[in-house]
User: What shape does this take?
Amino acid sequence: MKRTPLRPLARILAARQQGENPDVIEKENLRLRHEEMRDKSRLRAESRLWVLSLFFFAAFAMVGGRMAVMAASEPAEPRRLASTSRIVAERADIVDRNGRLLATNLQTHSLYAQPPEMVEPERAARELVRIFPDLDEKRLIKDFTGERKFLWIKRKISPEQQQLVHDLGEPGLLFGPREMRLYPNGRLAAHILGGYGFGREGVHAAEVIGTAGVEKAFDAFLRDPAQEGRPLQLSIDLTIQAAVERVLYGGMRLMNAKGATAVLMDVHTGEIISMASLPDFDPNDRPLPLIEGDKADDPLFNRAVQGVYELGSTFKILTMAQAMNIGLVNPHTEVDANAPLVWGKFKIREWGRKNYGPRLSVTKAIVKSSNVATANVARMIGIKRQKAFFKQLGFFDPTPVELVEAPGAKPLIPKVWSEIVTITTSYGHGMSASPLHLASAYASVLNGGTRIKPTLLRRTTPQNGERVVSVDVSRYSREMLRKVVTEGTASFGEVPGYEVGGKTGTADKPRPRGGYYDDKVIATFASIFPANDPKYVLVVTLDEPVETSGPKPRRTAGWTAVPVAAEIIRRTAPLLGLRPSVEPLALDQVTMTRSR
Assistant: This one.
């Protein structure tokens, strides 16, 4: 910067020659310098003000724009984001086919301790045991007075328990937010829903994961943020599930059974409308698995899917349907029914050592539940064709239902499928399958003849699977099952207004070390309704039932499983939207009346 001297020599000398005061020149130059400095400072200040003005204008414009965007968007609850935790705790709801809630989430708290921060650890231990009686006081005192820096006390606590702990005033007892799973209907559909647990855990969040049932089978879907909280819709109907479980529980108690199961399924879509297994449990407080004893006695055991049993004479209609479909017989064909049937060292007898022979029509063989007649038809079918048919119906593989327990429930198939196996399997002995396998097979044969696979997901269209029998064979089979109710072993299965067709099955229960019990059975009734145009299949199985109203105990399915199934149909058919049919009276029953 060029700087002008305050006392320039040339002007000072000229001023002295002219007799002027040189100090005036200095003052004038000083004034000009100050004015120049003032102008530069003012210009600098004005520039800064402009820059600040532009900055504040941009900031207010940004805030105003953000406010406008928020005002135009949908309102939503704020969410806390923790950059130090990647645990996703939110989990989608589960609803029934009508959108009613089966499982949801509940905000609660966990309780943990930091012993170094505790003032009175021994008093805190005593008070905690009073609030939570399941805690061990000695263990707590050891942990609180030891070298531990952190320990969990309770993974989830209620608001009341939280307040009681808070009132202790102990700074070393702290709470963490938790999201837990809530099943508002308690035990209802417990084996379907399964249960939950915690995966990765932190102080401020916990990973909620499925441990059984659909909770585990659809764990990835329920935890997927991309689903945006869309609920998982199942095929079951909450109202019908409640009715089935109530009737089944009453039937199990009335028939003195140790366990029971029921499967109600749509024969066209494969949707499971209801599936119950007893004894059951509350998924809100899921018990630990049994360590010893019979696993079938475990409340966690799902008898409908995991229970594989010899299902007895319910298989007979499958054998006859295959024979009719091949063309070996028709409903009126007479077959050898002379008992006993001797095959090598084995004798095939009828129940109660009866003899329905010498010959029975195929329809009569089903109505009277003849072992010998069915066995002779199976011998006509042959080993290869029988195995292929049962494999087509799904009896060689676990059911494809969407439960995590299903893949481990494979039917028990004989290692060597000889002719005697063909004979015994034709009437439901020698091969074990689950009630859900049986329901699927009945639906496939009786819905018109197309293969049906069970599902727990809501569907709106028929499955239209591969054909297993012809339409005519399917109709003949339905007519036979209807006669079993009207004329045969399932007479207690008649429900006025709803044509019920079905087949009873009573199988001796196998001993754990081989052989069979003399006084323990698995009683099953597999039914369809309405029989003339079936919409639903119902399978009811009772474990070790015994009906004691008569002079002698009765264990057959006709006395035990059939009345329970009939009551289920009576309760649920109206709920399913089925209108009762009114059969016209005979002319001699019509009475003429005259009104005034």
Notes: The domain at 94-233 is CATH 3.90.1310.10 (Penicillin-binding protein 2a (Domain 2)).
